[in-house]
Specification:
By secondary structure, this protein is of the alpha/beta class. The chain contains twelve helices and twelve strands. The strands form three sheets. A seven-stranded mixed β-sheet has the order 3-2-1-4-8-6-9, sandwiched between helices. It has a three-stranded mixed β-sheet with strand order 5-10-7. The longest helix has 26 residues.
Length: 393
Amino acid sequence: MPVWQPDAGPIKLPDCLFLFIQLLYSLFTLLLWAAWRRIGRSASSSLTPAQPLLSVVIAVRDEEDNIGTLLQDLDKQSCASDAFEVIVVDDHSADRTARIVEETAPAVSFPLRLLHLHNYLAAGAAGAGYKKEAIRCGVEAARGEWIVLTDGDCRVGSGWLKSIATEVTGNSAQMISGPVTFHSEASFFQKMQTVEFASLIGSGAATLQLGLPTMCNAANLAFSKRAFQDVNGYAGTAHTATGDDLFLMHKIHTRFPGCVRFLKERESIVYTRAKADWQSFYQQRKRWASKWNLYQDRRVTVLAVLVFLSNAALLAGITGYFLDALTGQALLAGIVLRFASEFLFLGSVLLFLKKPAMLRWIFPVQMVYFLYVTFFAIMAQKRGYVWKGRKLY
């Protein structure tokens, strides 16, 4: 291993290139932090007749362990029970999911309907896009002016729907992206996922604030029924299993510039569970990574390339140090630049998500995140992943 020499002679070209990439990445992260801080919060107010009827659409497949709890959460919403309806679309579940919904319907105070996707879908017609077809069926059946999406394995607070209704009342919004985080993290692996996922939520919110939508999450997403119809729903991407949230956001942003917003309100946080094992985590992240080559906005592609290059450069820099191709000074300076900006940004997002205990896990995540990004960027080039018991491409 090379010895760190304070006066090692002329600066090497690899040092300059490495530091330039890390500086560029750090400046971009600071820009995200500044944009995140500028996102306004909605003022709370009580529901009024002027606020639209919300239709909560939940596409589910084999969620017998979770759907009952979510429906109980919805029955505890602080808004009036006639201010929203819930439509559960069962995507060929092989367990008791549909039975639980049917048994719960008479016991809750809000209108609850169960749709079976197989009644609306010809055999094999969905291709890989079963969830998109399920959402489409739910939207078509909805009575509300606004559609609210979440997943069957999520938990929501009592103020969730009220915060969304307040946000969409009296303004030009056509889509609302909401915050999502994990709960009941038990293992080191799950805590690291919470920090990593916070970076995705924060980045999506910040780039949206900058006028460049990059990501959102269907676990907490709302859009006007009119906007969904105007952009022809999932037409053009209906054949893909992923992107039921992201590609729809891009279409609505293109059709209604400036009308896609992030709801930075703690009452609107949706909670789900981190993956318990590496295999399920791998399949989920591989599915997410498979979206990147489908982006049509070149600016999003440029940002994705920047993130990949900065992480790949860190891996190359560490390797180069041990091969005496990069000086220790350059490596340390690049790491400090990168980690300081990331800690500032991630810390602010985690505090908003009510996860102060996770601040201590930022540094461990930083130590492996560059490996994670590089690995999945490469693996995304290989088609195929397993999702909800289906092998998809």
